[in-house]
Amino acid sequence: MAVDRDHVLRSAAALLTRKSTATMDEVAKAAGISRATLHRLFAGRDALVRALEALGIAECEAALDAARLDDGPASDAVRRLVRAIEPVAALLAFLYSENQLFEDGQQNAGWTRIDECIADLFKRGQAAGEFRIDLTPAWLTEALYGLLASGAWAVSEGRVASKDFTFMIAELLLGGAVRHPAQPREES
Fold it and tell me: Is the pTM for the entire model greater than 0.85?
């Protein structure tokens, strides 16, 4: 019987997003396979995490396409992006905390492409006068990642309703990113 690698990866992702310290035995059990079969697919935890990283990148790239980042106002595109990324946010939160992905100082080229697409969205919003220009697109991109990870953790812990995920993340980010007209100075 052939083992469905995608099923194993998605089972591992589902488990590791809830329990990041899960053992390979626990991952195998969650996938409904033996530890030996899991080891044939992924030589160890590092190989599994690298495969999950590839899955996360593919899912993010699909979310970027679905969000149509070049259509309409940039703030609407941010909301569409958060909505499109929501199904994979827990996996991203797990990957965000996996130090081994960042130990060698090299970033996977897939993350670089994703970073550039999102930063370009923020640049477009700044050029259109929608977003503050005193916050760099790189910072806004990192803030979005942080909010996505925090939102995923809050939903998985039951502290936040999943139906509120998109609204809370997009509105908090955009509320801080919106460019406000200059405030008159108060006289002292």
Answer: no
